[in-house]
Amino acid sequence: MAGTETRLRIAIQKSGRLNEDSVQVLKDCGIVIDNGKDQLKASARNFPLEVLYLRNDDIPQYLEDGVADIAIVGENLLVEKQRNVQVIQRLGFSKCRLSLAVPKDAAVNGLNYFNGKRIATSYPATLRKFLADNGIGADIHEISGSVEIAPNIGLADAICDLVSSGSTLFKNGLEEAHVILKSEAVLAAGPNLSVEAKEILQKLTFRLTAVLRARRSKYILMNVPNDRIDIVSRILPVLKSPTVMPLAEEGWSSLHSVIDEDKFWDVIDELKANGAEGILVVPIEKMVV
Ligand code: PRP
Q1: Closest ligand 1 atom to the C-alpha of 56?
Q2: pTM to 2 decimals?
Q3: Which end of the chain is more exposed for a tag (fewer CB within 10 A), N or C?
């Protein structure tokens, strides 16, 4: 029947650290969403997806209740809220950590320092479990925002908060004392997806996998003397053998491959030492293997 086509409902942050990157990753998947910043809901033009812009803290509950089928959300929030939701895919952006932090002049001598201290946080459940697991008795002061000012106004001796660049801690005269949890954005799903929703999810994760793989990889091209092709190929940390094409200049070839960006810097000197020249590293937009 016209107009009753199933749409996968995805929740993303209405505002906050994940919002822009979440919209971008969907865009990179070729999904066009008519964006309205003040809209609560938007439909994708060319993919059966409905985007719900929600308050971050509410997303795990909405997933469990089936208001949204899937969501892009920080792992840290899923750990804190303990709802019946499943992580489908790690998305590699919005990396941060949940850490204990103290005033710069505090003499922290291990976790025992926190015994008997007052710790302000918006992550009481995660902190409570961490303290219990480590046998630390501390007072947890739950506050919903601006946790970093708590020590300066005498509300707490320490905080447990998200740290990304560290600039919020620095600006407030605090320093990181212990990392409790490492987090990044993930794609999560609620417990009761329909068969149709699962099929759409599969199409979406296929696209996401291609986009994320491309983000981690670079296309590399270089000119290599023919008698060095074997050795240079062996240096390149790639799964498949590279493409080799003859150059107009006698005795030289152009060698092409795909490489993990992180690994490129480890091998660059060795490539040059073995005769590679004119090395180009270029971004890849999508990568389907
Ligand atoms: C977190 C956290 C800090 C800030 C840390 O807030 O509460 O305020 O990020 O980031 P930085 O180390 O790069 O300075 P977030 O932006 O997630 O919003 P929130 O206040 O709603 O938690």
Answers
A1: 21
A2: 0.86
A3: N
More confident residue, 83 or 239: 83
| 65 and 189 part of one domain | yes
Question: What CATH number does the domain containing 49 carry?
Answer: 3.40.190.10
Q: What digits encode the pLDDT tens for the residues 64-80?
A: 999 999 999 999 999 99
CA atoms within 13 A on the CB side of 15: 4
d(CA 240, CA 90): 25
Residue 66 belongs to some domain of the structure:
yes
Q: Which range of residues forms the domain containing residue 145? A: 96-183
Radius of gyration of the chain (CA): 24
Residue in 162, 167, 180, 182 to alter for ligand 1 test, most ligand atoms within 8 A of Cβ? 162
pLDDT of residue 1: 42
Closest CA to 134 of 115, 156, 161: 115
| Cα–Cα separations (whole angstroms), residue 13 to 73, 145, 148 | 7, 16, 22
